[in-house]
Amino acid sequence: MAAEDLKVRVKFTYEQCLSFLPFYPEIWFEGSIWYGELGDKQQEGKMLKRGIAMNPQNIMLTFALAEKHESDGKIQDAKQIYEDMCENQPSPLAFIHYMRFARRSESVAAARAVFKQARKSTEGCSWHVFCDAALREYRINKDAGVARNVFEKGLEHYGTEVSYILNYLDFLIALNDDNNTRVVFEKVLAEDNGLDSSQALQIWNRFVDFEYSRGNLSSISKVEKRRAALYPELKSNDGLAQLACRYRCWDMWPCDDKMLQLWELPDEGVEGVAKSRSSGGGPKDIEREPEGKKLVEPAIEPKRVVPLPPIPHVIQDLLHQLPSGPIPNAPNADEVLNMIHAMIIPPRFYKPPSTMAIGRSGFIPGTSMGGPGKRGREDEDMKTNPGGDVFRQRQKQRYANITD
Q1: CB 131 within 8 Å of CB 161
Q2: pLDDT of residue 396
Q3: How do residues 299-355 score in pLDDT, each as one tens digit?
Q4: CA 389 to chain centre
């Protein structure tokens, strides 16, 4: 098939598909990519615009169109798309990407202007916007002072957002600013800050972990005691569990996985739970569970029951004749012994007739074809000499025959 004919057929296929499935943004996106690979930039843009018109709530196609204009060098067209999106569909994600676009296509001042615009929006501002703006100032603009001011400003509005607090603390720890890090810990853990118990526990765990790596033994002990006073139910507060938490490092623990399961450390939010056994005997295949979910121990396979051999008939007859009953009402031992002495116990080689197997040839096991076998001779000797030793009697008989 000729290349032009193939293009016509593929185009017709896309149009037919979109006439029945206009609310599937992936088809619009794939169609625009196909036009872009052909080099038809005009049809590529039209396909995305048609898709946005049919799916106005789907901002992915809007991002794709803005990216196309930016890659084509049409900065004002891309900027207009971001402006319209932040005005008509304001969201933290829209403002964050608008700030990134302004920084890479215009200037640092333009990105800060977008951040100022986002702060005034009630629907488009969240702790994510403050965090992204602060980290951009630190990582791209190389201005740690401005980044810290942005974090402090956001802390005034989002002082109860644990994720924001942890990002701020990570930023200060990366700066090696230990004093200000401790100040922020104390500030967010104050009683008037508004954190509930579960939120504050995550901050306390990070505080303890920070002292493990940066503090001395005195500061470590003080923070551990303060956390234990607020959360006495934690198993990692004292004993060997506390020592294990203190001397762990990343995914290396100074104990085995059974002890960690016993202490339920993953449930208490302890960070760095190992996913593979370390050389120091760390846990294996233990993952951090979601909050409020208990660690499920693996099911223990029941042991295989081995059947016991059957009880001999003589013992069964004996047990049936003995008295039975609960232990408090058990008979006297002397009475039981007297009953045993009075019983008629079968001879040693007694075997019930029902259990004797006769072979296909008609002879009884233990005998030979020509007469009684070894067991048969033993039975005859026992009948003639019931009180004697069969073996000794035979030896005496053989000796007498030799001497004669």
Answers
A1: no
A2: 72
A3: 545 555 556 677 777 777 777 777 766 555 666 777 777 777 777 666 655 555 544
A4: 73
- Number of C-beta neighbours around residue 300 at 10 A: 6
* Range in 107-121, 124-138, 299-313, 327-341 the model is least confident about: 299-313
Closest by CA to 130, choosing from 88, 161, 173, 175, is 161
CA separation for the pair 117, 124 (Å, rounded): 9
What lies within 8 Å, CB to CB, of 323 at 6+ separation is: 331, 335, 336, 339
Nearest one of 239, 184, 181 to 214, comparing CA atoms: 181
pLDDT score of 188 more than 90: yes
Assigned token pair, 2? 């000729």
Cβ(71)–Cβ(79) below 8 Å: no
Question: Residue 64 corresponds to which tokens in the numbers above?
Answer: 């794709």
Contact in structure between 213 and 170 (CB atoms under 8 Å): no
Per the document, the length of the chain is 404
Give the Cα separation of 337 and 318 in Å (integer).
Answer: 12
Residue 126 tokens read as: 């969240």
Q: At 309, which amino acid appears?
A: P
- Would you state the torsion angle of the CA atoms of residues 117, 122, 126, 130, taken in this order, to the nearest 10 degrees? 30
Amino acid sitting at position 165: I
- The neighbouring-strand residues paired with 368 are 371
Greatest Cα-to-Cα distance within the chain, rounded to the nearest angstrom: 136
> Residue 121 corresponds to which tokens in the numbers above?
């929006």
Residue with tokens 């853990």: 189
In sequence order, the β-bridge partners of residue 252 are 249
The answer on pLDDT for 67 being more than 50 is yes
pLDDT tens per residue, range 354-385: 444 444 444 444 444 444 444 555 555 555 55
397 pLDDT higher than 70:
yes
> How many beta carbons lie within 10 A of that of residue 124, not counting itself?
22
Q: Which residue has the tokens 């603009």?
A: 141
Phi, psi of 371 (to 5 degrees): 165, -170
User: Do 188 and 203 form a contact (C-beta atoms < 8 A)?
Assistant: yes
Say yes or no to pLDDT of 30 above 80: yes
**pTM of the complete model:** 0.65
